[in-house]
């Protein structure tokens, strides 16, 4: 299954570049389930573009900004329009998890938003309770989301670079003649 996801991710990156990364991370940030696993897409993107900073920077920025835009959209939708994302079948968050996230926010405030965004599995969940039960402004929420998403994507970048260098190192060990024969 991982091979199929990686192949699809590489095809999307090859065709659409950082825009594909932005779209998938925005959907993930908006709690709309997984179109493609965002982590797989990001790591595959880093492998595809290489490890040089100038090539990786647009992919990194697209992931961080996409996640922040998606989470901010949920925050605004809940705060301004009274949307309940948990009522949508696409959103994999139930009331029990939202209650736990709300207690976490009550105890730690905006740093909890940043921390939860840095941890796989909890990313974006604090958008709903923060919008419902606090006076936090949308820009302050977006900054906290951005900080956490930057940490998360930075960790993914380290994984992507390790994978890319691992592939490059393995091909280098084969020698140029052997690589051409493949």
Automatic annotation (TrEMBL):
Predominant localisation class: membrane
VTT domain span: 42-157
Origin superkingdom: Archaea
Topology class, membrane: Multi-pass membrane protein
Localization, UniProt: Cell membrane
One of the record's GO cellular component terms: plasma membrane
Name under which the protein is recorded: VTT domain-containing protein
Source organism: Halorubrum aidingense JCM 13560
């Amino acid at each position: 299954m991982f091979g199929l996801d990686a192949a699809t991710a590489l095809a999307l990156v090859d065709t659409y570049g950082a825009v594909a990364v932005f779209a998938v991370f925005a959907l993930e940030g908006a709690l709309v389930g997984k179109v493609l696993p965002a982590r797989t897409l990001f790591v595959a993107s880093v492998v595809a573009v290489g490890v040089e900073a100038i090539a990786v920077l647009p992919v990194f920025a697209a992931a961080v900004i996409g996640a922040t835009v998606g989470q901010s959209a949920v925050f605004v939708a809940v705060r301004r329009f009274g949307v309940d994302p948990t009522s949508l079948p696409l959103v994999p968050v139930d009331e029990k998890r939202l209650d736990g996230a709300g207690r976490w926010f009550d105890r730690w405030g905006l740093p909890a938003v940043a921390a939860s965004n840095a941890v796989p599995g909890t990313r974006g969940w604090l958008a709903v309770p923060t919008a419902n039960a606090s006076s936090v402004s949308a820009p302050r929420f977006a900054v906290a989301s951005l900080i956490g998403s930057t940490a998360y994507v930075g960790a993914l970048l380290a994984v992507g670079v390790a994978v890319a260098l691992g592939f490059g190192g393995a091909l280098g060990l084969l020698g140029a003649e052997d690589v051409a024969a493949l």
